[in-house]
């Protein structure tokens, strides 16, 4: 949809929130089979072999691994250290395990705050008879397993256990999100009214803005007072470092961001710069897709911005063109020197340039000892950013300059066809109305949750 607004109903937001949850698990590596090492042979006088354990140890204190110590009690409901550890493991996994030790303590506190909010949301839904039954939670859990693993739920449960989490922790998060969205649909959404005149005004503004640029931006917002500014700024800088080191923006936004977009991984949707505060609009205008900037100081805190994409309002984007491509590639033998690889790549480029269109590509590839792979349904925007502009300048039968590496070999893309996108008329009246309703529901939701926190009885360990 071509629009400067996020066109999400409350139910759609719930789906996206759970999609983001799935994304948080998506970076998981393929499941590995467990390996059991044989126990070392005991040494004389030692019951524990190489561990050098005494035969008759004396236990000091009352350490019972089966007793879970409470971290917080929320309106009588216990959140244990185990609950925090298992939820934390999900976040660490989503970031490929790349979480610095000094970051872990701060992340642990944030997870605890999230669990407190989650508990309040589940409790409020139950009190309002909007609770989510276990069957619905299980169905969602099973979909996550299928979408992210292509396997049965048992495979997901096995993986969660292997990283120090559990199916129970993930199911509780699913239950919290479903319960909160159901509660909002019942207690908030029916009281939100968007007039026809408001919708027509938005549509008129969009028509007037045709051809102007709009941006799809991700944001992590951290609120701060005058007293907490130094600490919040330091936290924002640490998050920025983690993201630049390969951390998942979606996962960090869900855990840290204090704006209503946190549930969808910080995604603000398609917006125009005029909709942003000046402090954010200025750096956003200078960003390229994939770029991350911040921390940016605002009146009430700090923001980190991530430019997901940009396009022109109600204008066909060339990057939505569907391409038919052939990839022609050669590999270098293991141990090939850089000088030799450069020479072969140069010769490869000369021969490929003389290929007369896609019809002759397969025959020419055989003579080169190259491999050809075809793809007839790929969008320009799905290609690496560095290749998009190059591809858009090609005519049918032309190739890109060679690219690759010694390890991966060298390749070119040959354009065999291109279907340009059609100009869309923009979102419908109902879609805009739904979007405006969604925005107002989220504002009310923030107030709702703030009231729940204010009225809660919370005991910390």
Automatic annotation (TrEMBL):
Residues 212-309 form the PpiC domain. One of its GO terms (molecular function) is peptidyl-prolyl cis-trans isomerase activity. Keywords: Chaperone, Isomerase, Periplasm, Rotamase, Signal. Pfam families: Rotamase, SurA_N. Transmembrane segments: none annotated. The keyword Kinase does not apply. Residues 1-34 form the signal peptide. Gene3D superfamilies: 3.10.50.40, Porin chaperone SurA, peptide-binding domain (1.10.4030.10). This is Parvulin-like PPIase. It comes from Novosphingobium sediminis.
């Amino acid at each position: 949809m071509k629009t400067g607004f996020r066109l999400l109903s409350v139910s759609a937001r719930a789906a996206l929130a759970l999609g983001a949850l799935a994304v948080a698990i998506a970076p998981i590596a393929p499941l590995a089979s467990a390996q059991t090492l044989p126990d070392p042979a005991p040494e004389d006088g030692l019951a524990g072999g190489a561990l050098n354990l005494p035969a008759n140890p004396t236990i000091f204190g009352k350490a019972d691994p089966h007793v879970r110590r409470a971290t917080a009690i929320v309106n009588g409901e216990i959140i244990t250290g185990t609950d925090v550890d298992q939820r934390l493991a999900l976040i660490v996994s989503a970031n490929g395990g790349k979480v610095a030790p000094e970051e872990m303590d701060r992340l642990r506190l944030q997870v605890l705050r999230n669990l407190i909010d989650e508990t309040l949301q589940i409790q409020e839904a139950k009190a309002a008879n909007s609770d989510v039954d276990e069957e619905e939670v299980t169905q969602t859990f099973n979909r996550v397993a299928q979408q992210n693993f292509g396997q049965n739920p048992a495979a997901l449960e096995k993986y969660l256990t292997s990283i120090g989490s559990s199916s129970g922790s993930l199911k509780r998060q699913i239950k919290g999100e479903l319960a909160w969205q159901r509660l909002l649909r019942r207690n908030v959404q029916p009281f939100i009214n968007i007039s026809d005149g408001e919708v027509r005004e938005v549509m008129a503004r969009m028509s007037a803005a045709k051809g102007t640029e709009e941006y799809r931006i991700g944001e992590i917002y951290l609120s701060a007072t005058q007293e907490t500014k130094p600490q919040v700024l330091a936290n924002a800088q640490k998050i920025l470092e983690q993201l630049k080191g390969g951390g998942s923006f979606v996962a960090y936004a869900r855990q840290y961001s204090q704006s209503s977009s946190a549930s969808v991984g910080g995604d603000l949707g398609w917006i125009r710069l005029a909709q942003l505060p000046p402090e954010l609009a200025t750096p956003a205008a200078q960003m390229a897709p994939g770029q991350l900037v911040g921390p940016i100081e605002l009146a009430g805190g700090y923001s980190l911005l991530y430019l997901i994409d940009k396009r022109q309002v109600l204008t066909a984007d060339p990057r939505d063109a569907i391409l038919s491509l052939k990839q022609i590639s050669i590999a270098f033998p293991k141990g090939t020197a850089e000088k030799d690889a450069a020479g072969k790549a140069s010769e490869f480029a000369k021969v490929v340039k003389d290929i007369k269109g896609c019809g002759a590509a397969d025959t020419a590839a055989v003579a080169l000892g190259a491999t050809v792979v075809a793809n007839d349904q790929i969008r320009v925007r799905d290609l690496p950013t560095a290749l998009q502009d190059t591809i858009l300048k090609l005519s049918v039968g032309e190739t890109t300059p060679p690219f690759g590496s010694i390890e991966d070999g060298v390749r070119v893309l040959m354009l065999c066809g291109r279907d340009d996108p059609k100009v869309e008329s923009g979102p419908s009246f109902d879609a805009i109305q739904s979007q405006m309703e969604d925005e107002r529901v989220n504002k009310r939701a923030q107030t709702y949750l703030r009231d729940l926190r204010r009225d809660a009885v919370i005991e910390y360990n």
